[in-house]
Amino acid sequence: MLRIGHIELPIPVMLSPMAGVSDLPFRLISRSFGAPLAFTEMIDINAISQRDKRTTHMLSSCPDDRPLGVQFLGNSESQVALAVERLTGQAVDLVDFNAACPSPKVTRKGKGAALMKEPKKLAGILSEFVRETSLPVAVKIRAGWDADSVNARDVALYAQDAGISCLFIHGRTKAQGYSGMVDYAVIRDVKEALSIPVIASGDSLSREKVVRMFSETGCDGVAIARGALGNPWIFAETVRYMTDGAILPKPDVPERIAVMKRHLEMAVEHWGEKRGVGLFHKFFIWYTRGLGGLRPLRNRAFRTGTMQGLIEVIDELSLVYPRYRKRTPPGGPEVQDITAP
Ligand SMILES: Cc1cc2nc3c(=O)[nH]c(=O)nc-3n(C[C@H](O)[C@H](O)[C@H](O)COP(=O)(O)O)c2cc1C
User: Fold this and answer.
1) Does the pLDDT at position 148 exceed 50?
2) Residue 326 has pLDDT above 70, yes or no
3) What DSSP state is assigned to residue 150?
4) Residues 198 and 87 occupy one common structural domain
């Protein structure tokens, strides 16, 4: 059991926020396989002030989508009251502040990982969140700005002093972006310095890697991001592996097809047909990742603008897949792991 403020999570493995990905349908699919906590996409506080439709959509949720964290991006204490006010009447359980995004578009404006260079300013923003909301407040940080300025421990201590309930850390520097080695030692250092829960992120791409993150860092929880793309089964697999060491078999083709269709239908319900189908194209690639011989089907999926058309393409996976299996070399895997990132 992992406790963050009043939130109790039966398992300490959750879905990490992903801009452009973590919409309501993706969160619900991940939760259906056991992710106990999920986040909205990152919401820039400047966009909220215009009460735009995009923010409203990002905040939309449903009873099955709880507990839910909202992640904000910003660079000033003065924006905080507005952000918190925007949550009035929203079904939200946790407020998370982003000091980790490495995108130059974001850091140029002093937001995201740029705040790793200004720990006192970051702490000021976090204190303001803690003052303004009764919800637990969290922050997501990186190991540091670059290899010469790894300061996660200091930033984390400032953040804890600001009164937050939990800290998320992606164990790479801003300069690393999403590549290079995750620095387990930095995460361990942060965990040992703090008394609040520390949730680790970075390369938790399989159940084994999640377990490794726990054992190398002593963290209280792990947030999975890329490992869940087209692979919501990772949550069930990890939980079983961690609880009784069982290695669940990879989902078979009918299961994959059923989940893809369910995901697509939810995307269309949430976004409308044009946008829902358009957004699902990238999920089609992720769900079929690693499965060779699919280029024609992928191309057709990308040309398809209707839900019915895309469902027909998804159904064809059941025809293509057995052909693919026959090509698997003797002694090779009976079913190739098409979810391996
Ligand atoms: C497409 C994408 C979008 C992301 N967007 C966010 C975001 O909005 N907020 C955030 O805190 N982290 C974001 N991240 C970072 C992830 O939450 C996670 O910390 C990082 O990918 C490392 O974990 P992983 O190696 O398991 O993917 C994003 C990652 C990806 C791949």
Assistant:
1) yes
2) no
3) B
4) yes
Same domain, 128 and 155: yes
Domain range for residue 10? Answer: 2-244
Q: What spacing in Å lies between the alpha carbon of 210 and ligand 1's midpoint?
A: 15
Question: pLDDT higher for 22 or 331?
Answer: 22
Q: Are 50 and 14 in contact (CB under 8 A)?
A: no
CA distance 122 to 206: 32
Q: Which residues line ligand 1 (CB under 6 A)?
A: 16-21, 41-42, 71, 98, 100-101, 140, 170, 178, 201-204, 224-227
Please tell me the predicted confidence (pLDDT) of residue 318.
Answer: 87
Beta strands per DSSP E along the chain:
2-4, 7-9, 13-15, 38-39, 43-44, 68-73, 94-99, 137-144, 166-173, 198-201, 221-224
Position 292 scores a pLDDT of 76
Q: Say what the pLDDT of residue 335 is.
A: 34
CATH number at residue 290: 1.10.1200.80
Q: How many domains does the chain have?
A: 2
Q: Are strands 7-9 and 2-4 parallel, antiparallel or unpaired?
A: antiparallel
Average pLDDT over residues 157-180: 98
Q: Which two tokens stand for residue 297?
A: 């089907």
- The predicted pLDDT at position 323 comes to 54
- Using CA of residue 299, residue 302, residue 304, residue 309, what is the dihedral sign? positive
Top mutation candidate among 58, 116, 170 for ligand 1, by most atoms within 8 Å of CB? 170
CB atoms within 10 A of CB 39: 23
Q: Is the pLDDT of residue 17 over 60?
A: yes
Q: Which atom of ligand 1 is nearest to the CA of 228?
A: 26
Read off the pLDDT of each residue in 219-237 and give the average, rounded to a whole number: 98
Which of 244, 265, 280 lies at the terminal end of a domain, its last residue? 244
Check residue 131 and give its pLDDT. Answer: 98
In a domain, 333, yes or no: no
- Could you count the other beta carbons within 10 Å of the beta carbon of residue 296? 10
pLDDT of 37? 98
Residue where a domain terminates, one of 222, 244, 266 = 244
Say if 332 falls within a structural domain: no
